[in-house]
């Protein structure tokens, strides 16, 4: 079972509006509130099957060199991620990168394995799961395809 990560434009936009609103009003975020940086985007995975999932591997394709950090959130059902708190970010994150001249995407295997297993556990109680993806080294969302395979 291969489930794609889908860029959630609407949630990404609403989180950016929250950040702009705070800046315009010259107010501080709530204590511990996670504000979306320009290189961070919200993605979602819809679990078409919730039970008997066993994590197998990640399917990550990067069109160019760069790095992406995939962080899960503990938000349930229909989240209002505009008030996402740092404590709602799950550990470990999956970190994937591609070096110049390389064809293959690399990762910290132990963290990626643990992260995938954690997602499989959480899928039992969720139909949807949300993720923050952080792009670095000039990588953009359009240059990424990511799926989790059970």
From TrEMBL:
Cross-referenced InterPro entries: Olfactory_marker, Olfactory_marker_sf
GO biological process: sensory perception of smell; signal transduction
One of the Pfam families matching this protein, by short name: Olfactory_mark
Top-level taxon in the UniProt lineage: Eukaryota
Transmembrane segments: none
Family matches, as PANTHER family: OLFACTORY MARKER PROTEIN
Name of this protein: OMP protein
Natural source organism: Todus mexicanus (Puerto Rican tody)
């Amino acid at each position: 079972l291969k489930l794609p990560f889908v860029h959630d434009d609407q949630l990404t936009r609403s989180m950016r509006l929250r950040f702009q609103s705070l800046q315009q009003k010259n107010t501080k975020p709530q204590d511990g509130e996670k504000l979306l940086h320009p290189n961070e985007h919200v993605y979602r995975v819809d679990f078409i099957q919730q039970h008997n999932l066993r994590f197998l591997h990640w399917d990550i394709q990067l069109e160019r060199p760069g790095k992406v950090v995939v962080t899960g959130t503990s938000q349930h059902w229909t989240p209002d991620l505009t008030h996402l708190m740092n404590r709602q970010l799950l550990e470990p994150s999956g970190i994937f990168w591609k070096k110049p001249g390389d064809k293959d995407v690399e990762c910290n295997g132990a963290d990626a394995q643990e992260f995938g297993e954690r997602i499989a556990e959480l899928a039992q109680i969720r139909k949807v799961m949300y993720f923050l993806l952080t792009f670095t080294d000039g990588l953009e969302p359009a240059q990424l395809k990511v799926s989790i395979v059970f």
